């Protein structure tokens, strides 16, 4: 038996390596043992940083750079991707409205998604008819009103003055005027890559679950949550959209809700979007092996994470799937029921993460080579 074709489809290893980097290291490990084997790399991203590069690496396209407003309304250079069909844009909101752009100035009361709206607007100007928006890694909690304002929506207080386009401004919101929204939005399909199912407000909502990591203390979290509740009520009254009860509406500080309400977006798991766009079924149909992975595999991986999504696709074609991961957590064995054949950890010694990440690349290469040697040494595979 000959190992002719291997597909590599990992997520990033959070805090250490991007999915693109993981792909390259695993490819090297394969080639060191099976130099003649065809290797196809499909890096996967979950909607956060690296989403654009993952798409462009997988299927090609062009990276577009644009001057936009960052979360604090300062001008920065952001980017998005246009895929080879010239009609599909891929945006990661983190490029314009991400947490990394504010560094030590985190404050979701004043952060805005306006720059994300500017990226959408630029994609429309280029004639894009489908826009994929990755909504991970945000610094914001504004319900997407900044994004919508960039597209022409007006958010007004009781005196008919425009509110601040941030999480704090939602407190004064009394009326939404969509009459000036860019008409091209209606003819554009918007898909939001979202890997959480949190509602907009409440104990499991955007503010309570994600606010603290964006700089919100306990008092601010309560304020932000109340503001999102006010926003949801006005959206329901003025637009007739119940954003609270849409799974994932609380993603990216409520940008999920805003994209649905103002752009007619569909919220989908990031893994599903990527696999559909790259036509993954066609790519793997004649593969001999699929290698996937992520930083840590555990019971949470069953909730739409990359390795399980990949395994479910591969199982349709009876293709074995190996998961190479940084760490193995509780209930990881449950992924075997979803199509994962075997799990290998790159951590060769039980050391803390801060130490492990120093040698993570070397260990990933060694682990891949070990897996390939095992395959080579069994059943006469060459």
UniProtKB/TrEMBL annotation:
InterPro entries: Glyc_kinase_flavodox-like_fold, Glycerate_kinase, Glycerate_kinase_RE-like, Glycerate_kinase_sf. GO terms for molecular function: kinase activity. It comes from the Bacteria. Belongs to the glycerate kinase type-1 family. This is Glycerate kinase. It comes from Clostridium ganghwense. SUPFAM superfamilies: Glycerate kinase I (SSF110738). Keywords: Kinase, Transferase. PANTHER family: GLYCERATE KINASE.
């Amino acid at each position: 038996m000959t190992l002719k074709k291997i597909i590599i489809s990992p997520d990033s290893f959070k805090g250490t390596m991007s999915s693109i980097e993981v792909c390259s290291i695993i490819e090297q490990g394969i080639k060191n043992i099976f130099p003649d084997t065809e290797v196809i790399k499909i890096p996967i991203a979950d909607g956060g940083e690296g989403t654009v590069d993952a798409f462009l690496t997988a299927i090609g396209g062009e990276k577009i750079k644009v001057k936009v407003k960052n979360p604090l309304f300062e001008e920065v250079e952001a980017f998005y991707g246009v895929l080879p069909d010239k009609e599909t844009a891929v945006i990661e909101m983190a490029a314009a409205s991400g947490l990394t752009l504010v560094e030590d100035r985190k404050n979701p009361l004043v952060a805005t998604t306006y720059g994300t709206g500017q990226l959408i607007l630029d994609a429309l100007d280029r004639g894009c008819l489908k826009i994929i928006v990755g909504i991970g890694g945000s610094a914001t909690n504004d319900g997407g009103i900044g994004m919508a304002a960039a597209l022409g929506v007006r958010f007004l207080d009781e005196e008919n003055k425009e509110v601040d386009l941030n999480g704090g401004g939602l407190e004064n919101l009394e009326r939404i005027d969509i009459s000036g929204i860019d008409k091209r939005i209606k003819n554009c399909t918007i898909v939001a890559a979202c890997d959480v199912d949190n509602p907009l407000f409440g104990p499991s909502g955007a503010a309570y679950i994600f606010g603290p990591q964006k700089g919100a203390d306990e008092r601010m979290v309560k304020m932000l949550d109340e503001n999102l509740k006010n926003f949801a009520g006005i959206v329901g009254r003025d637009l007739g959209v119940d954003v609270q009860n849409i799974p994932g509406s609380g993603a990216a500080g409520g940008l999920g809700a805003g994209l649905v309400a103002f752009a007619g977006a569909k919220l989908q798991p990031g893994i599903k979007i990527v696999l559909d766009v790259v036509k993954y079924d066609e790519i793997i149909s004649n593969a001999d092996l699929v290698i996937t992975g992520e930083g840590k595999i555990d019971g949470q991986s069953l909730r739409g994470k990359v390795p399980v999504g990949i395994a479910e696709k591969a199982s349709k074609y009876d293709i074995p799937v190996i998961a190479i991961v940084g760490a193995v957590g509780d209930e990881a064995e449950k992924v075997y029921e979803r199509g994962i054949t075997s799990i290998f950890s790159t951590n060769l010694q039980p050391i803390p993460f801060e130490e492990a990440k120093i040698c993570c690349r070397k260990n990933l290469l060694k682990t891949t080579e070990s897996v390939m040697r095992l395959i080579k040494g069994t059943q006469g595979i060459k």
